[in-house]
Specification:
The chain is mostly beta strands and about 375 residues long. Helices cover about 0% and strands about 50% of the residues. A hairpin with a 2-residue loop joins strand 29 and strand 30 (about 340-345). The longest helix has 7 residues, at about 355-360.
Amino acid sequence: MGSASGWVASQLPEDDLELGGIIDVDVPPQTERHRAEGGVWFATKKSLLHLHQKMWRRWSHDDGLPAPLSAIACGLSDAVYLGTEKGEIYSWSGPEHHKLLEQIPDTGISCLRLGYHRQTHQPLLVAGCGTPYTPSHDNLCVTLYGDILTSSGRERRGQASAPSIVHSEPLSTGTRGSTVDITFNAAGIPHLLFRDNRYPDKPSFIFHRLRFRRRTKGEASIQWHAFSIIKTPCTTIEYMRTQRSSGLWVGTPGGLYYLNPSKHSSNLGILLNIPSTGPVYDIFQDSRNWLWVSGHEGLFLHAKSRWWRFIDPPGDILFKLDRIVEDQMGNIYVVRGDQYFWLKWSDHFGRGGVSLNTLKKLTEPVKTTAASLSL
């Protein structure tokens, strides 16, 4: 394809297309202490796939893969963490190296996210529980932290090491509902959006953040703290990770909002009035601090101090996207159903060096009355 820019449409290998589409996608995180293997991980209900340098690897039930899968999260080593509809959380490094870390009865894993707590240098794996409309369980989430990211069967500092859990505790809120989404701020502190289903016709949406403390004997203590309760339906969250600003992007059926976690509030705050966004399905801030918003009417991008809407490819291909991620090379991947698309910038611009002319070829500028974003 040379150096041409644009979206490249792809599908999973043919054997996986009949398995209900892509349920989750993730890329390994990169920190100052860890450099994981590259590529992109995809999950269907019955298979796990890894795409790296145009080569596919695939695992299924025949390889010992647990099923049905409901969520995945990439570790800092070559491990991938798997959530299932049965409430199980596994560490997976291959058919010979996998381990059940936790099993939560009477529920499923709705989302799974991994972050790196910078102050304590501890990895954090947060598993949200429940299903969106089934008020059958009062566990908010399970938090695992410590040396859980060392793959089993691998050598570390001269010693064989397997995943170990320093702490695992289901957190009960006393309410019945489900975890909608999880995000981490720049310091690696997880924030969580919870749907309270005690009154299914009028659910509340509760925002939590994790407080992480060390006790005198060196043991760690964690506590979830609710900082906002919203009546407006919420669909997804993403933390603004910049040095100049901080806060939560909140997606709703009515558009994109900004919420300040330092202020206890029952209102979402600033509405970013992007015309024709409609319901928001996913929000993602990439390594350039560009903000990607998947809406009912297309894919929107805040870059170079203004909003853009992708018009290439034409039609409704980039509408209602389920997930947006970025790999280690700065490529953007988006998922919808059984298809995924990756955005190829012109090769000679390099990582993060996309020109305004390239952006103009793929998008159209969007006029908005929203407040200026300090990204």
